[in-house]
Design a protein that fits this description.
The chain is mainly alpha-helical. The chain has one domain. Helices cover about 55% and strands about 0% of the residues. The chain has three helices and no strands. The protein has helices at about 1-55, 65-70, 75-90.
Length: about 130
């Protein structure tokens, strides 16, 4: 009777130990995956913000600088977004919220582009242009 009881407890302790080990190390895996996901999302969000608030600036498209800023504020992301809103006067949006944002391009409402090089009279002579 005692041998059966001990064998059952030993088997139960073995399986519980395996389950706890999987959950413990699996938790680190899930946490690492989530932190990497948040890091990439915030980097894209910061790059998109710079692209729409300061197009053509030094920060527009600088992935390494954006990654450093997001890493620097990794536990204080709310402070980062609040500081950017205060500095540039525009709300920080999510990446998918910027898609409908218009930068005031030279397109008409029906989606056609306007050719600004074409003369109105149809004369395409290039007499006024200097030779390069």
């Amino acid at each position: 009777m005692q041998a059966t009881k001990t064998a059952r407890n030993s088997k139960l302790r073995y399986y519980v130990g395996i389950i706890l080990a999987v959950l413990f190390f699996g938790g680190f895996l899930v946490r690492s995956y989530y932190e990497e996901h948040v890091f990439k999302r915030d980097t894209e969000r910061l790059l998109m913000y710079y692209k729409h608030v300061m197009p053509g600036s030094m920060h527009d498209g600088d992935v390494d600088s954006a990654r450093y800023v997001v890493w620097k504020y990794r536990s204080k992301s709310a402070k980062l977004w609040k500081t950017l809103e205060k500095k540039y006067g525009e709300a920080v949006r999510q990446v998918d919220e910027w898609e409908g944002f218009d930068l005031g391009g030279d397109t008409t409402d029906d989606g056609e582009t306007q050719d600004l090089d074409e003369d109105e009279g149809g004369d395409t002579s290039k007499e006024d242009e200097p030779d390069l």
